[in-house]
Amino acid sequence: MNLSQLDAFLLLANGYNVTETAERLFCTQPSVSIKIRKLEEELQTRLFERINNRLYLTSQGKVYQQYATQIVNLVKASSEHMRQFDDPSKGEIKFGASHFVGVYLLPQVMAQFKRQSPLVKLSMDISTSIQLIHKLDIQELEFLIMSDHIFLDPTQYHLDTFLIDPLVLICSPDHWLAKEKHCCFSDIESEVFLIKPEHSATHDFLLDKFKENNKKLMNMMEIKSLEGIKQGVIHGLGISIVSRLSITQELKAGLLCEITLDDISFNRGIRYVYHKEKYISPSTTNFLSTLRTYTQTLTNNTGL
């Protein structure tokens, strides 16, 4: 087994035909066929089946695709890390982030890091927690930054919480709550409450908190986008509970009002995650140090 065989397999597995695969690998079509045949012989299983002159992965091929992806990504990462030993101010960092962290926190951290290490290439994947964890497991991403409400096995992953993110009640300046500045949950339980759809991390976090405190919302309206929720609140569609990180600009501009809930609070940790057996590159070590320094300053200055 060699990397050229795995490269050919993955290209075919991802939907390229033999001609396209040969062009991308700068080899002949018969050479691609030989690579796949030798790989199947070594694994003693069929990876593809041909139906109507098209190649399709067998069930064994679908399983092996995950392993091949991990192997190729791991080899690429190891080469990248070796280069960074010579100069940690160069290289590439690929990481993933949940939506609210990736949009409202990390751009500032990335900008600060780029000022310190302008030659390091940064690549951030903003996606759902399920997709991010999958990409971490196949070595496509080096680490993740996400809420600690999402369960990850501490025996398998390194988990480091570096920031506490309060979620706060918000309303429009014209809402009756804006004059009160604080309230109890019973005051808002019948209000139209804008929330992300079921199975989103924030949705699950809020409902778990309500359940823990024996509280229930009567009138929920689901909006998939956090920006959509904020705009809905601004225009009087309802109220919501969102990360304070995500409404800094709107609060300063007077577009939203933050209301204190006297009988319940919503705080979640933000953490970075990587596999325990994962070697963290020099550039990534520097990036995580910048992240911790930035968020410590943010906490001291804003009281997050």
TrEMBL record:
Q: What is this protein called?
A: LysR family transcriptional regulator
Instruction: From the record, give the transmembrane residue ranges.
Output: none
Q: Which domain of life does the protein's organism represent?
A: Bacteria
One GO molecular-function annotation for this sequence? DNA-binding transcription factor activity
Say which species the protein is native to.
Providencia burhodogranariea DSM 19968
Alphabetical UniProt keywords: DNA-binding, Transcription, Transcription regulation
Specify the taxonomic lineage. Answer: Bacteria, Pseudomonadati, Pseudomonadota, Gammaproteobacteria, Enterobacterales
Instruction: List each copy of the HTH lysR-type domain by range.
Output: 1-58
Q: Which InterPro entries match?
A: LysR_HTH_N, LysR_subst-bd, WH-like_DNA-bd_sf, WH_DNA-bd_sf
Against Pfam families, the record matches this protein to: HTH_1, LysR_substrate
Assigned protein family: Belongs to the LysR transcriptional regulatory family.
